[in-house]
Specification:
Length: 405
């Protein structure tokens, strides 16, 4: 493919949506993008939603087609900037969309407002940077400095929606992990903590949103645990401790199985995403998520309304003693023990496992017991001549005896 000629004019998105059935070139800010997937033919495709100063409320969707995944735009972050040339504006299902045709269109991806570089981190082989590209890039980055990115929502409308969001909650399809149900499809806004290969071309996502998933019943008999114990985690091997120590210590970490190696390219750790049409099920008394053929993933900005709300919920839980406890623990059961340090905040099992003073914990203790319909499993590792230290405090328990008449 020959190098493209330097573009003489870039359309604003507001002007582009009026140029139906015409080829246009434009530069915009990426607010959302989806996972690569196979088209009905032999191509791969993905969708990007763009906005600029002229078109802030809705965004323009561009469908990109390519022969392989690595030739699609692999966006690093919402808020990055993309340059498209020779894309066609169409009207489809009562919506204006743009189509990137692999034979004539080109693209280039640039870092967003935090960068001053004009070198694309990914581009079509025929793309070459022009003077006009630099001018439009500079203008967009300057505009972004005073704009809070939120999937194409203007700052004034964003504040109104944030107030309504806090008063009414999010849409019915978007659920936090604390409200999921076995076998029910839902949308999840969460952070990807890590991505691990569990077998050939099979990957596992570790997702978190700051809330606690509902407890599950364990349908097994306690006397069978010695001969055929239930697995303690869905992954075949334990995560490295340095990875585990980066996890938040409050909130459920949901395991989600991904069976397409190509999709792993898009799942990058520590990104906030919206997973559309996710389903969870009980497996060995643990929650397990699955991506369906209809599942879509959108990468979100840290300034997205739902992301801000999830972060707020988590931040509110940390300083208080009771909010660190899972919601399923309330109302609080009768206390059968007392501690000399009752004023200290509750610690989660993740607090113990990631504590710097228990890094040499090697052998395993296992305590399985049933409380109502919940299975509570606590596993600690200890080796001979190794003592278990919990936050360097000696916690002395004394029995609280009931008095009988």
């Amino acid at each position: 493919m020959q190098e493209r000629e330097e573009v003489s004019v870039y359309f604003s998105i507001n002007d582009a949506v009026s140029a139906l059935r015409q080829k246009v070139s434009l530069i915009g800010v990426i607010t959302e993008y989806t996972l690569p997937e196979m088209s009905r033919g032999t191509d791969w495709f993905c969708s990007l939603k763009l906005m600029d100063a002229s078109y802030q409320d809705h965004g323009l969707v561009i469908n990109v087609f390519a022969e392989s995944v690595d030739k699609l735009p692999l966006v690093r972050s919402a808020g990055d900037i993309v340059c498209f040339t020779s894309i066609t504006i169409n009207f489809h299902h009562e919506k204006v969309i743009a189509v990137f045709k692999k034979s004539i269109s080109t693209f280039a991806l640039f870092e967003g407002k935090s960068s001053k570089s004009f070198i694309p981190y990914q581009a079509s082989s025929s793309y070459n940077l022009g003077k006009l590209d630099i001018e439009v890039l500079t203008s967009l980055r300057t505009w972004l400095l005073n704009y809070q990115l939120d999937s194409g929502i203007s700052s004034g409308r964003r504040m109104l929606l944030l107030k309504l969001f806090l008063l009414r909650g999010t849409s019915e399809s978007i659920l936090p992990l604390e409200k999921i149900r076995d076998g029910k499809c839902f949308d999840l806004v969460c952070k990807i903590l890590t991505v691990r290969e569990v077998s050939k071309d099979n990957w596992m996502l570790f997702l978190w949103d700051g809330t606690d998933a509902p407890p599950l019943s364990c349908r097994t008999k306690l006397n069978l645990e010695l001969e055929n114990p239930l697995p303690l985690q869905l992954e075949a091997s334990l995560l490295p401790r340095d990875v585990l120590c980066e996890f938040p210590t409050v909130g459920t970490v949901l395991r989600v199985i991904v069976d397409q190696a190509s999709e792993k390219l898009v799942f990058q750790p520590w990104r906030w995403v919206k997973i559309i049409d996710l389903v969870c099920e009980e497996r060995f008394g643990l929650w397990c998520g699955h991506l369906k053929p209809s599942t879509r993933v959108r990468i979100l900005s840290d300034e997205d309304i739902t992301v801000i709300d999830r972060q707020r919920i988590y931040a509110d839980r940390l300083p208080t003693k009771w909010d660190r406890m899972p919601s399923s623990a309330l109302p609080w059961p009768p206390q059968i023990t007392e501690t000399d340090l009752g004023h200290l905040p509750f610690a989660t099992l993740m607090d113990a496992l990631t504590c710097s003073e228990v890094c040499s914990l090697l052998a395993m203790w296992c305590l399985n017991y049933f409380l109502k319909v919940q299975r509570l499993s606590h596993f600690f590792f200890r080796k001979l001549h190794t003592s278990f230290l919990f936050f360097s405090m000696a916690i002395n328990l004394r029995l609280s005896r009931n008095s009988f008449p």
